[in-house]
Amino acid sequence: MLLGLESQRENIFMQKTNNKSGKEIAADEKQAMVAVAGHICLDIIPSFGSEERNFGDLFTPGRLVEVGPAVVSTGGAVSNTGLALHRLGVPTVMIGKVGRDFLGDMVLNVLRSHGPGLAKGMIVDDSSSTSYTIVISPPKKDRMFFHCSGANDVFGNADIDDRHLGGIRLFHFGYPPLMRKMYRRGGEELKDLFQRIREKRITTSLDMAKPDPTSEAGRKDWNRILERVLPYVDIFLPSLEEILYMIDRKILKSFNNTPSDEGFMTRIDTGLLDNLADRLINMGTLVVVVKLGNQGLYLRSGANADRLSYAGGTNLNITEWTNRQLLAPCFHTHVAGTTGAGDCTIAGLLAGLLTGISPIAAITAAVGVGACSTETSDATSGIPSLKAVFNRVQSGWQRHNTSIPKPGWQWDKDDAVWKGPLDRSGTD
User: Does residue 297 form part of some domain?
Assistant: First the structure.
């Protein structure tokens, strides 16, 4: 029922993006619908095989740890979300900064291999080194990162050229906590950027990252920064841990100090999610989407969603996007790696919004794309077209149970989502 209701709008988009030749795709990229800007790096991901190991033992001083071949791919929000959107069929331009070095050449070559127009917004900085991350991702364990910010630290508002914003319907920015210029001066640079993009009547979205608590970024007043930036952000898409770190560190600390085999995610409920979302909406954003790992994706929207029509166009029903309170469970997959899964989940939601579909269908697409991402060790190579994701959902793709307590919420078996007591169903 869910995707049947969306089929007409989805097909309009798919007819424009599927089964194209290389020349047609290149032409579309000159008319990009989405700009993805912010943090980009080179990911180096050693493989660990399927054997479970004691994670702590991997870092015993003096020990040699045998691993398999490494996957080397681009990483960060620009690459993960941008390439995921491209693979889903959305004409995309990426805007980031690398150094004039070997790693920078590798980043640019990877982007260009996916499409000749994808890297046209990339900047090469002679005075900076290229950012890189060593990703430790053992089977059935959360990831650990060794990260060098490099050229990301000097990326700023002026690096986004107006030439790359022509025809753009949606602007997405990712990982400002890992970009020094964006969080200094109380986030003034980030605020100026989003204010400038908003004035161009482009829908805006923002993703975060949790900084090292001992770093300069980790000591910033992120609550104050968000108060300045969110009035210019239409869709805010943090993970639960990121947003707790930024606006309610006391709760995060209490969760992290409580022993649990499953982590703090088992000790939250929808009341906490609603409280966080209401605070963020009061700061000025229109839609809050919180990534919950294997517990799914939470969406809360306020009474005003008019600005989303810049992205969704005439197909978007604004009523469907106002006063929503939804939770979509994840899909079952054989997990090969979780690197970049949150970024790809965002890509699924943004791609859905661009088709003009409802928030229920959009968050379903989001968790579907995120699930596809985990089926390969890198972030994006497992992602098919958006049409293929919809087809997989319609074929009866099995869902995980969501164990988060949901007092007052109801399961909608037709739409396969949880709806909160304040949810206004619109015309779904």
Answer: yes
Query: What confidence score (pLDDT) does residue 63 get?
Result: 82
Residue 104 half-sphere exposure toward CB, CA atoms < 13 A: 19
**What are the tokens at 282?**
């009061």
In a domain, residue 82? The reply is: no
Reading the block at residue 419, the tokens are 């709806």
- Which pLDDT does position 43 carry in this prediction? 87
What would the two tokens of residue 338 be?
């979780």
pLDDT at residue 6, as a whole number:
45
pLDDT at 32: 77
**Which residue reads 């005439």 in tokens?**
314
What pLDDT sits at residue 14? 44
- Tokens 């979780």 belong to residue: 338
Residue 185 has, within 13 A of its CA and on its CB side, a CA count of 8
Q: Which residues pair with 147 in a beta bridge?
A: 133
**At a CB cut-off of 8 Å and minimum separation 6, what does 398 contact?**
331, 332
Domain count, the chain: 1
Pairwise CA distance, residues 428 & 414, whole Å: 10
Can you tell me the distance from the alpha carbon of 164 to that of 148, in angstroms, rounded to the nearest whole number? 27
On whether residue 261 sits in a domain, the answer given is yes
What domain range includes position 334? Answer: 2-38+167-419
Give the tokens for residue 197.
Answer: 């993009």
> Which SS3 state, helix, strand or coil, does residue 399 take?
strand
Q: Which of 414, 380, 427, 418 is nearest to 86 (CA)?
A: 380
Q: Alpha carbon of 373 to those of 99, 291, 322, 368: distances in Å?
A: 28, 14, 29, 9
CATH number at residue 31: 3.40.1190
- Residues 59-81: b if buried by 16+ CB within 10 A, e if exposed: eeeeeeeeeeeebebbbbbbbbb
What pLDDT is attached to residue 307? Answer: 95
**In-domain check, residue 265:** yes
CB atoms within 10 A of CB 395: 7
The pLDDT, as a whole number, for residue 391 is 96
Spans in the chain with pLDDT lower than 50:
1-30, 261
CA distance 84 to 369: 8
Average pLDDT score over the chain = 88
* Local structure of 279: helix, strand or coil: helix
Q: Is 162 buried (19+), middle (13-18) or exposed (0-12) by CB count in 10 A?
A: exposed
CB 151, CB 130: distance < 8 Å: yes
CB of 287 closer than 8 Å to CB of 305: yes
- Report yes or no: 325 and 303 within 8 Å, Cβ to Cβ: no
